Amino acid sequence: MLETKEGSLYLDGKPLRIISGSIHYFRIVEGYWRDRLEKLKAGGFNTVETYIPWNFHEPKKGRFILEGMHNVERFIQLAEEMGLYVILRPSPYICAEWEMGGLPAWLLKDPDLRFRCSDPVFLAHLKEYYDHLLPVLKTYQYSEGGPVIAFQIENEYGAYGDDKTYLEAIRRMYHEHGIRELLFTSDGPDMSKPGSLRDEWTTLNFGSRPEEAFQELEKWKPGEPRMCMEYWIGWFDAWGHPHHTRDAASTGDVLKRMLNMGASMNVYMFHGGTNFQFYNGANHYDTYEPTITSYDYDALLTESGEITEKFRTVQRILAEEGQDVEMIPEEKPARLSERKVELSQSVSLFDTLSTVSARRKNVTPLTMEELDQSYGFVLYRTTFEGKGMFSVELDAMQDRAFLYINGVYQYTYYRNDTKKVVDLFFPEESNTFEIFIENMGRVNYGKYLSERKGLIQNVWIGNRYTFDWEMYSIELEEPVLDFHHQTDERFPKFFEGSFSVETPADTFVQLDGWKKGNVLINGFNLGRYWEIGPQKTLYLPAPLLQEGENKIQVLELEGHSTPSLSLVPEPDLG
């Protein structure tokens, strides 16, 4: 077992320095797990670390998924085959720029539930999840012959709360399921005290100034074995902001200083991957900032798994420290030949509602969570009685809304807009009023962690509420489109085309001329695009393609200037 004593880490009584890299299996198609782990091993690393997101494995209450991309057990097995140790972080909350920090959105159906504390209802849900997950993980503990040497209790909890009873409850659940490996917490240096337990290992997260960071920890936990559980070597991107990069020299300098202090470390991220489907998170400080689809993170491997200069720099430093490394040839990976794909069929979402949505009626509008929906879009429809110009309050709409009166587009609202009221003309005595709302990703960090989506309350129109609403939930899970009964020309619209592949290879979907929406390949949602950037292409990994015909679909929300898209060999992240 891994133990902490005399300021150091020991495994089976022998000193161990953990040289780890973060790889999130849930951001990588299963067919590429082995490749990414092999490159980690070749880089001089002896350990792989991964979060385990609750919402990825229990997307609906009581529906547990551990197959395909969700097969964390297989990921652990592959690491073991390569002789890597494994650190697991199955915290209720992971942050990770992941939707709601990994907490499942169905928790929000209970208005009285409180997250990340000793609320008995929250702990009961967590226990039911752990009752399924932990028996699977228990098998792979080092003490039972497996590669897993440590488990995280909670993640950056000091930046959220200080409920020690909550942390102790999670620890107790681990012990009840026979988890005997070393337990730890991780926080920023100035937040570690409220976020950790006195008698469990405290690790730190930072991107620079390691001397100051470990001095801060030493003040209240003298002699604690030093480990940076997240050495941030890059950063994530938000829509409308520049692409973040960090040069290799800076990365290497901090790494060497940390190693010279005898510290263990985990590079965050060794390989970032992709926020497929609707799993991107968001941050909210002064404004709401949703994370882009790419989680390239300027990591040691690119989003598509290519070796970088930063990888070579870190590998060289680790080799100097005596780590086993393997030189990987500078080979350009196979790419699909560049081509244009015509999207020859299209249909308004309003004409194919019956095949892509689930309908519900209620006196008042329901939030997305009350509709038992976690991600995607909701179309709200009601009848407004009254002719003339009326003010419509917009701040009940999260996150981006398109407004229509009698089938005619009127206005687009985004929650960051300073204008919160719009005057709209209702031309008839009785009018159909529709609001199409996109959930652009729940906040994954801080005090806005528990926000709801859709219409979060009734809409105030002309100094009154309107009642009796229809709601259509659209989650884009392998949508079946009806192109035969087209009467509506409004956006959002679905577009569909196909292309043939002889040998599947990686490619990137270029969306010049398209504004905002999602791309699906053979029914799999690659994620979001938005013309404001920085990301201009979506990564399409080879395992999602098939020999022969491949179907590509686009849900465009706002408009387009071309009937085609392109598959290109290189990414454009801005």
Automatic annotation (TrEMBL):
Protein origin, superkingdom: Bacteria
Keyword Metal-binding (UniProt): no
Active site: E156, E230
Domain Glycoside hydrolase 35 catalytic as annotated: residue spans: 8-319
Coiled coil: none
Organism: Salibacterium qingdaonense
Protein name (Swiss-Prot/TrEMBL): Beta-galactosidase
GO biological process: carbohydrate metabolic process
Start and end residues of each Beta-galactosidase 1-like first all-beta domain: 365-474
Gene Ontology molecular functions: beta-galactosidase activity
